[in-house]
Design a protein that fits this description.
Number of strands: 5
Shape: elongated
Radius of gyration: 20 Å
Helix content: 40-55%
Largest sheet: 3 strands, antiparallel
Strand order of the largest sheet: 1-5-4
Order of helices and strands: HHEEEHHHEEH
Strand content: 5-15%
Distance between the termini: 40 Å
Structural class: alpha+beta
Number of helices: 6
Length: 177
């Protein structure tokens, strides 16, 4: 009897090349926010080296920015028109007014409000990025470790920053042109 093994496989082979629809299906199965996770993975692929590693920092205008902060900043335009963002701007402006910290100059006041909003957005964005990365790690599409002060380590802390490595099959799908 003729037996073609690949027709009867029950689990996907992680080393097998993946196309974009298969990548999207894997992300959708692993994440409650697949669009966000796909965008995050695509951004990582753009800054990753040839082995698929991105981090611990990304150079932006000559400055080294932690990869997680860079991802947050890169994903900010998605939230620009959301009601949550407008509400955050109003909340920050009101808090600065009540603390009597809002400058009289309207240009300076807008700059300060935008700076405080950016801090809040980045803080919540770091949580969103971590959640999406955890989903991608569970699905086997991404690996995370921490690098920094003294030694590389699987656990964060002690002045370490995240390094993300896209698995070869997913990286191939993201870089296919």
């Amino acid at each position: 009897m003729f037996h073609q093994a690949d027709l009867f496989e029950t689990t996907a082979n992680p080393a097998r090349a993946m196309d974009t629809p298969a990548l999207m299906a894997a992300i959708a199965a692993a994440s409650q926010r697949p669009k966000f996770s796909f965008m995050l993975l695509q951004l990582l692929a753009e800054v990753a080296d040839e082995q698929g590693s991105a981090g611990p920092s990304v150079v932006v205008n000559g400055d080294a920015v932690p990869v997680r902060d860079w991802l947050c900043d890169a994903l900010v335009p998605i939230a620009q028109r959301s009601p949550w963002r407008r509400s955050t701007i109003e909340t920050v402006r009101l808090a600065l007014e009540q603390a009597d910290e809002l400058p009289i100059d309207p240009v300076e006041a807008d700059r300060l409000v935008q700076e405080k909003v950016r801090e809040r957005v980045r803080q919540s964005g770091r949580c969103n990025v971590s959640r999406a990365v955890s989903d991608l790690c569970r699905s086997g599409l991404l690996r995370r470790h921490y690098q920094g002060y003294r030694v590389d380590h699987q656990n964060r802390g002690a002045q370490r920053e995240a390094v993300y490595t896209i698995m070869p099959a997913a990286l191939g799908a993201l870089r296919r042109r």
